[in-house]
Amino acid sequence: MKTYYYVLASQHFLLEEEPIHEVLKERTRHYHEQEKEIDFWLVKNPAFLEAPEMAENKSKCPRPPVAIISTNHQFINWLKLRLEYVITGQFEAPSPQIPDPLASLTTV
């Protein structure tokens, strides 16, 4: 299992009110220049929210939700400080309650 960290917000807030695409595009460019593997993903309607242990965060987040998931805890902390109005957390996956969050994703 791997530990994933996330910021969670409404799609309206994160994708329309915040210039998050620019932030992720710049980070992607930097990773490519450094020949570093991408360790973050933008996920609409994240499946991990369906796990019983995520019920509280799911109920706090306006619909429809979007998450930025990463294996880099520092990046998620930086996003939390930059964005302010987001929910943060972490989870272990794959597990019986949470499938691999990256199984059907492509990088940002």
TrEMBL record:
User: Transmembrane segments in this chain: where?
Assistant: none
Write down the Gene3D superfamilies for this protein, in alphabetical order.
Uncharacterised protein family Ycf54
Q: Which family does it belong to?
A: Belongs to the ycf54 family.
The record's InterPro entries line, in alphabetical order, gives: Ycf54, Ycf54-like_sf
Q: What is this protein called?
A: DUF2488 family protein
